[in-house]
Structure formats: C-alpha cells, structure tokens
Queue: 4 jobs
Job 1
Amino acid sequence: MSRSCAHVGADGRPCRAAPLRDGSYCFMHDPEQAEEAAAARRLGGIRRRRESTLAVAYELGGLQSVAGLRRLLDIIVADGLSLDNGIGRLRVLIAAVSTGARLLEVRDLEARIQALEAMQRARQRRTATGSIPRRDEPQRP
Ligand SMILES: [Zn+2]
C-alpha cells in the first residue's frame, strides 16, 4: 500500500508526493525539513530562471522537434569551430556532421510519410464518392 504526504494545499488538494521514510510528510512539506526545502525551492527557482534566460539568449526551442534539435546542433557547431584545432574539435565536428545527417534523414522521411498519407486520404475520398472504381470491380471498356 502506498502512502502519500499529509500536506493539504491552499486549494484543498492533498500533496500526492511520497512521504519521508519515518514521517507523514514529503521532503518539501515536512516541518523538520523546512530550511532545506526552502533552500531547494530557491535553487530550483534560480535554475529555472537561468534555463529560461539561456533559452532566450540562444533562441532554443526545446528538443521536442527537429527544428529545436537543429538549433542546438548549430550552436554546438559554432562553438566547436571556434575551438583551437585538435582531436577534440575534430571529434565534435564529426559527431555534429553525423547527427545532422540523421536529422536530415528524419526530416525527409517525415515529409515523405506526410505526402503518402495525404495521397492515401485523397484516394479514400475518391473511392468513397465512387469517382474511381475499386480495384476488385471489373473495369468497363
Ligand atoms: Zn508533500
């Protein structure tokens, strides 16, 4: 049986985090951990602010899309090119070429799949309206 934290929020909803081993509250809500929890919240806030500042400065859109991945790769390549030449720099650039090639492949495959799906949908619409005969129907001369 899983226990959950005894804290109830200002909105009346209970905290669903797991309580500490010998207590009834989670780390964030245990009165005995209040100081540490406040420090953790402060650090979390600093980290989130820093992350959003960096995201704006580098125009990062996250890694959930090919465009976002490409943007980060562009930054890595720019940084890699500005390093002194050496085996480390060359490795960074080779890895970037390889990763970039994979991203192009994914982008091309996505485009081809979308085109095929669009063709399939158009074909289904034409078949449903009877404007083209189905393959198993006899063709009229
Ligand atoms: Zn809690």
Job 2
Amino acid sequence: MSDAKTMKNAMEIALLGAAIPPAFMALRFVQGQKQAEAVWQASQYPKLGDIGSVKNLSILPLIDWRTASDELEGEPGVSYLIRADDTTILFDMGLNRDFKHPSPLLRNMEKLGISFDEIDMIFISHNHLDHVGGMQHVKDGIFGPSAGYVNLHQAPAYAPVPIVNPSATTIVVEEPTVLAPGIASMAPIPRQLFFLGWTPEQSLAINVAGKGIVLIIGCGHPTIQRIITRKEMLFDEPLYGVIGGLHFPVTASRSVRHGIPAQQYFGTGRWPWDHITRADVHEAISFLYRRDPKVVSLSPHDSCDWSLTAFQDAFGSRYVDLMVGKEIEI
Ligand SMILES: [Zn+2]
Ligand SMILES: [Zn+2]
C-alpha cells in the first residue's frame, strides 16, 4: 500500500472515530425518545382517590439560584424544605458544584437554623447533579446533601431510580404513591435528553384542605404540560399551586461549562441545536393559565430572567419569587 493511501485510510479511521460518539448519541436519543413516548402513552393510572389533606403547607428554598439575603449562598441547583402539617420533607439535595463539606446546602441550613433531625422524609425528583448534590454523587450512584457524611437518620428517600445514601432508606417509586396523608408522588415521567440520557423525573403533589393540589417540581424535564396532565389523571381537586423548576433557559443559562451555556443544550429533550424558545414559554404559560392556579413560583435555577419575567407578567399578584431563605406559605 502506498504511503499516500495509508495516510488516507488513517485519516478516514480518525474521522470515523470522531463521528462514532455523536452517531451513538443520536441513535440513543432517537430510541430513547420513542421509548419515553411509549412509556408515557402506556402510563394510564386510575384516580388516587381520597389521599387526605394537609391544613398548612410551606416551602422554604434551601438551595436555588436567587437568595433572599447576601448571607445565603445561591447555586443553579435545587433543595427545598417542605413542611406539610406534621411531615417535613427535604426535596432534592442541591448542586454542591465544588463538592465541598460542608456544602452550600449545609451552610444555608445552618444559617436558617434547620437541622436534619426535623426531616421525616427525602424526595429526589431526578438523578441530575444539581438535584442529588453533585457530579461525584451521580458518578457514584449516590444522593447526598454534602461531600462528607451527614446523618439522615435512615429517613425514607423516595427516588425515581435506585440511587442510595448510607444513612437513608431508598424506596424507588414506580407508580403514583401516597407518601403521607395528603402527600403523593405522581410517579416518574421519563424524558430522553440528548447528552444526559434517560431521565425519569417525579413531582410531588400536596393536597391542601379547601384549596387544592400544590405541585412541587424539580427541573420540569417532562414538560409542565405532561406534569399537569398526570395531575389531572390522578386528582379531581383543582390545581392550586405550581412551585419549582420548569427548565426555560431561553436567553441564558445559569450554568456555563467551558464557555457552553449548558442548560440551553443539555436539559431540553430536543436536538442540541433546537433550543427552547419564547414561544415555548408562552405556550406553557397559557396551558398553565387555563388551570387558574393561585400560586405560581418558577425556580430560577434552570430558567433565565426573561422567562421569570414572562411568568411574573402573566400571573401578576399570583406570582411569588422563589429565593433561598424566603418561605412560601400556601
Ligand atoms: Zn435536571
Ligand atoms: Zn435542575
């Protein structure tokens, strides 16, 4: 074989090698999308019936992008303390980007006077680094509030996939499940994301007496339309509130890695070049608006300022800013 031909073959092999990961990802993406659609179509659940109700509900963001004071730390991640009558829930574990101990979550908890002794259960919306407490935890199949050991007192931890923590008791949620009187998981809804892969995400539904269902959402990957459709399948009560992440990084991304606006590319459930648009946000707002919710609070951890303003403009006095340290009382 001539040198020139050997060189050409080597180049072709190199080019092929570079193309294989994207080709593999594209195939995985198309197959995963089909699979997610099939799971969604097959997930026909009966009404949950009388799940009970709570009289008092409050949501205190412990980690999110915006903070109510300079003393508290913000990150593009989620951790909320939910107090529903006698049940206190830790919803997600934050990002802990630098994987420190104590983490920003622990430091904020200390400043807000919250202890792990008060937490009755843990709810993990989905297995992404900004919700399970860091990239290292994702790699290890763990969720955790910090890089070092924290005693979670063997609290039950409801998760959509089998991730663990040495001091908690994981229960993998596969179908709609009542977790305590008036409190339910609506079961995971899967979405295939181009880079991040198969992503089942569950949302929490809390029935507030005389008001209706309050939804607490992690990243909103399944889309708000599907999350609300699932709520309408499970409950007769009206939708009272929607609080949490809906993934609308239209004009900017909170998380930028190697100069890439990560959220605009990574969490959308679409091809990487097919970004979330203003029209998508308006469509979601009008879908939500027709349900007439009385409290709407969009997490800034995965939505840009433009989207936050769009929600605020649409819902007016029913819109509540979501900030670390500012309790939302229902
Ligand atoms: Zn996510
Ligand atoms: Zn998120």
Job 3
Amino acid sequence: MSLLIKNGKLVLPSHIVEADLLIKNGKINRIDSCIEISNIPILDAKGAYVLPAGIDPHVHLLLSTANGLSADDFETGSKAALAGGTTTIIDFITPTKGQHLLEAYQQRLSEVKNCYCDFAFHMSIIEWRESIPEEMEACIKEFGITSFKTYLAYQKTIGISFVTLEKVMIAAKNLNAMVTIHSEMGDLIDKLREEAIGLNQIDLNFHPKTRPDYTEYQAVDKIIELVRKTNCKTYIVHVSTAESLNKIKQAQKEYLPIFAESCPQYFTFNESVYTKIRNEALGFMMSPPLRSEENRKGIENAIIQGTVSTLGTDHCPFTLNQKQKAKNFAEVPNGAGGVQHRLSLFYSRFVHTKKLLTTDMAKLTSSNPAQFFRLPQKGEIKVDYDADLIIWKEQSITIKDQLLYSQSDIDIYANEQIKGKVDIVIKAGEIVYQNGKLEDTLPLGHYLYRK
Ligand SMILES: [Zn+2]
C-alpha cells in the first residue's frame, strides 16, 4: 500500500525538515523536497509535525497477579497505545520458579491475542541456576530477546539479590545484552511494610512511607558499583527520585553504560495524591510510589538536562473494584494506565513550554527505545525504515474528553489538560487512527525479532 505525505515538518534525529515523504509497502520509500506521483492517496500535512511513532519500552498487558489479571489485555492495551501514537510496545515475560526461559517465552507468546501494535518482550530473570547463561543465549539467538529484566523489589516472589544480579550482568555482558533493573531495596521495604502493618498503620499513605526515596537511590548506588565492575549495559526502569538521577548522571560522566527511564506519572504528580479520598488515591498505588514535589521537579529537570534517556509508562491498570478489595495498603494491586497519554503528557510539559524540542520528544519516546532495545528499522524517519509515523497537532483538551481505549475504569490522568495530541497515526503505511478514533479494522501487529 502506498501513501504520499505532503508538506509535513519531518522530525529527523537532529533537525526538522519540511519535505514530502513517500510510503511504499509499509516502508518509508523516499524523502524529498517535492514528490509528485499520481494515482496514490495523498495526505496533506501542511504545517504539522510528522514524528516517528512512539515505542513504549515498558508496558504490562494481561499481567497475572494475586489480585487477578490487569485490566488491559493485548487487544485493549494495544488499541490504547495506537490511539496515543504508540505503534510498538515492549512487554515482559516472567517465568515461574524453575521454569526454563524458553518455555516461559512460548507460554507468554500464546497469551498474545489481537495485538495491534508490533511487540517484543524483555525476559525476566527471577532466580539463578547454572544453565541461566545458556538459556539467555538461546533467548537472544532463537527468539530475538536482547534485554533481561531483574527486580530488586518483591524479594518474596520474583526479586533477586545483588549477588544474583551481578551474575546476570556478567552473563549479559558476555552476550552483549542489556540488563534492565527495578531498583528498590526489597528487603528493607519488606521490613518497613511489616512494621507498619504490625502497628496497624494500614492506610494508603503508608505505601509511600514504607518505600521512602532512599530505598530507590541506595539500590542505584549498588547497581552503579556493579556496572563499574562488569561494564554491562544497564537500564534502570521507572526512576522516580531526583537523587537516583544525580547518581546516574555522575556515573554517566564516568562513561559507565548506565541509562535511565522515567515515566509520566513521576513528572506529573507528587505524593499529595495519597491524601485524596480513598477511591481516588487507590488509582495512584504503584511502585515506586509518587514522591515529594522536590523529587517531581528533580525528574522534570533531569529530563530537560538529558539524564533520562527514555520515557516508558509502566502501563498496568487495574479496575477500581480490584483495588477496593484490599484490606490494607500492602494488598492493593500496584499499577496505573498511561500508554494512551505518554506522548501528549511529554509534549505538554516539555515541548509546548519550550523546555525541550520536538526532536527531543522523538528521541525519548521512540528513537532511544529503538536503539537500546535493538528494534529493527524503527524509531526514525529514514528511507527503508518502517512507516510507523504520527502527525501531531497542537490542541488544548482535557484527557477525559478524548475517546479512551483502556478497559480500566480508572484513569489517573483524566483531569490533566494537554496541549497536543496525535491527529493521525500511521502503522506500517496504513492509517490506523484519525478524526479522534481508531479505524474499524486494524492490521495485526507483529512480534519483533531483535538482533
Ligand atoms: Zn513495570
């Protein structure tokens, strides 16, 4: 299928150029100052930015938890992503104890039904055994999984120790793979939570109190030591404190291969949300928790200064009913949605306010995730790359006044005013979203084999 986009402001990695762009067979075929071809559909993008479509490196769809499945499966989650201008998502495989990584991969792949985004997985390493390095190598070679997720929180279930983390990092370094880390001191948090519950301190505001900011940055300190020792490419997910980012910035000055992801919730909200009425506060129960206003500003500044390399969402919404069932703060399923709003929230806070450029938006929401996670032919407007594109429009609108696709009845961003949103979304050369809604029939996404 062919499509000619005329007169758009194409957001290339280093600059913006006003040009025409020809799409053929789902790929970007030609970029030129003026392309004239008859008999193909033409889209006039005069005055509008044309960006590489979003790549969300951190989503959890159809996540199985003690409180049941998360609210969005691959169908509703990918629709929400597309409607927000994100055409590629990276989800997770979490093996059970003792399960071979390849078996876990097969099982997770069988759970993907009607996914309209292209997708890939990070493989979680939840324990050590002698065969793990070989299993990791097989993940890379057989299934194109080049990134491995580890958790330092959740010690009683999927969390690992720093000793195991070091082994994973050595294995990953030998395989030239990326290790991604949920950085929280799990044992310390478990102790604080048990103490609080023992004292009947069960209200929601004990969630942030039992995960104080030092539980994140102390773990970051130890991770930096391990990066120095192993030189493994390391990516810290959902960084939520200013001090963690200070430490990462220092490590980057030493040229250590350490990178930070943050998420819109950490530059949008602060911990005051936990004092809202219970039904509202429940929506904000996530780990790491929302932090002080000082931390929120710190995240914003670190994004402006370039310490944060990517923006993910950690999209993992639950229904209000699932969250309401909890008898204390520790029982509330953790997570919130956001995949439909990531680009709008970034644009409104950073680009509309002229703190960052449109090229920075492309970098954090698309090109950097593509580069870090080795997504072939994605993340840039370049000849022969996938024609995954968005046409952007300045528009002042409240989030809840858009057509929303998440299946959760909670949207923590509902009352946020945004200043820009996608006008048209093109995936593999096909228009999948326009006039404020998704097309009735959508092409299925593909599993991305990474190299
Ligand atoms: Zn996550």
Job 4
Amino acid sequence: MNMSAQRDYYEVLGVERKATTVQITESYRRLAIRFHPDKNPGDSEAADRFKEAARAFEVLSDDNLRARYDRFGHAGLQGGPQHEFNDISDIFEAFGDMFGGGAFGEALSGGRRGSRARKGRDVFCSVSMSLLEAARGATKTVEFGRHEACGSCDGSGAKKGTQPVQCDYCAGRGQVIQQAGVFRLQTTCPACQGAGRIIREKCPSCSGEGLTEEQVERRVTIPAGVDRDVRVRLAGEGEPGANGGPPGDCYCVIEIEDHPFLTRDGRDLHCEVPITFSQAALGATVQVPTLDGAKPLEIKRGTQAGDVVRVRGLGMPEVRGRGIGDLHVHVHVEVPKSLSPRSEQLLRELAAEEQKSVSPKRSTFFSRLADYFQPRDPAGHDPGKNDHGTEEKT
Ligand SMILES: [Zn+2]
Ligand SMILES: [Zn+2]
C-alpha cells in the first residue's frame, strides 16, 4: 500500500483528538466492517481504506504510540513498531479478535500477539543542546524508559523453578478459527492471548509479564550540523523483541536551545547589530556575535538602516556535508533618544547643512511625493501650479 501522503489518524477514524479508547475502538470496528474485503471483493480502494483504518487503530489504541503520535505526528512513528500491513491476513493476526465478537477487547490488552518473531518497539527520548553544540557536534547523555527481561525468571514470566506449559485451548498454536456470520476468521487464542503457553505460577517480580520497566542511561554522539527535530538512532536500545525477534531502537529527538544573539535558518545564521547614525554614515568597525564569540566586522561608509552584511562561512555546517552556511548581520541604525548639548548643536549644524544641499535620493523621493498628492482639478487648471499660482518647490 502506498500511503506516502498519510492522512491524520484521527481523521481516518473520524474521531476527535480527545476520543476515548472505547470511541476509537467502536469507530474502527464500524470502518473495518464497512471496508471488509469479504464485503468488497476486488475493490482495491476498500482494501486500502481497510488497511489505513487498521494502521490508525493500531496507533491510537495504544497509549504509548498515541502519545508519541500526538507529540511528533507521523514522524514519531517512522521506523516504529507498527506492523507492515502488507497483507490483509496481517490485520487479522493483529486484531482478529475484533471480528470474532466473543473476545472483543482482547486486542486492546496488547502484549503477546501470535507466536511470530517480532522486532521490539522503538522508544523515544529528547536531547537538548546549545546552538554551538549543534554546530560542532557533541556527545550527550540521554535517559529513557524501556522494558528488559525480568532477572528473576529470565523473561519467562513463570515463578522460579516452574515453566510455562502448553495452552490446551489452542494446542499451543496461539490461534483459533472462529465463524462469525459470513466471516470465517482465524483469531488470537483467548485463553493464552496468542502465546501458545500458559503460566500457572506467575513470577512475583514481574507479575508474569516476563519484563520489568527500567530506566536506562546511554551516551549518544550527535553529528555536527543537526537541526531541531532531527532524530539520532541508538540501534538496538529499544524495547525487547517478541518470540526471539530483535530489539527495537531508541530515537533521540534533537531540541536546540535559543541563542541570545543568533537565530538559525537552515545552515545560515542571522543576528542584529545596532550602530549609530554617524557609524552608518562614516563607516566603522563593530563587534558582531558569532558562534565563537564576538568578532570585528567592517561596516561600510553609507550603510543604510536594514542593510544586511553577509559573512561567508560563519554559519552552521551541513550534517554529513561539506558545505557551511553564512552569517547575515542585519544592521539596525539607532536614533538617539536623548542628546547632549554638544551633540544637539552638531546635529543642528548638520540639519542646516542638509537644507542647503538635499541628498539626491531624498530629492527624488520628495518630488515623487509631491506629484502623488497634487490636487487634480477637473476644470483643467494646470496641475503644476498651486492656488497661488507659484511653482511647487521640492
Ligand atoms: Zn519475572
Ligand atoms: Zn492458547
């Protein structure tokens, strides 16, 4: 199934984001019956809808996956634990109970489904770093929760000295055949929940789960150039696999702290630097923030407010690339709010000087402004003259 443009899972199931697990289950059940392949033979769109609903249900019916989906969207699930529903029969293996009726609700208990080897679930954690660490790369310590095989029972779930025994109900197969109306379905054994084995005496340390919840600390090497929401994988550090399957992975989602002076746009950095009016007019060397601290920058004579000076090579590196971005210095010309008597005197002299020789750009601007607001007279007076008959001065 090609689901490259993935629809929102809540939308797929037609439920609100606050929907309860019961509402989600009921909605999925309705859709599954409507798009059931037995009811829509040869209809590939119905088959796709059926699979899409199953995928949405798998995520939203699982508290852990749902929380991850709410936080990270589809990105939080990539490479994740969902079954690849390539085949309709996979869906029955996962949620077969839902169509059988009797064991409805069993599917929500999660845990052991079928006896096929499955890769463990991925876990997620976040890793916070400064902009400088992101630029240089860093090794960080992350902490995350996952399950590990219980030490008391070596993961069997059976009390020390006892062993799980074969399930009588399904003769150890983990699956039973159920007939429901026109549907003849293979569903998960309700007695052993698909494990094929029954634990008579549960291990007290893990209550028969075979797993205990652990908090794990790992070191993770973050490559230079990462941006926020990039995920760095710790292979094999996720949840343990089922029935001999490999463990899942741990994904560290990068968060980058705000820098007091620099903002990032991809591989480029931006900063704002205040200069005085006289520095703008005469040119100056000013200190600008960079990743390596303040550095001198030449401001050219005649720099305008809002001009951007581009400094090559002072941006962020590309992850696993050879390129490096630029630093864009946005020049902010500050107008003084209060003046010393001497400054005021100098500025008044400057103003007097400016009236005698208006700069070329200003003269064009003010003549254009005057043209724009010229009163238009429908009687046909010369628009170039005002009421007093004198020429407009610009
Ligand atoms: Zn145990
Ligand atoms: Zn069984």
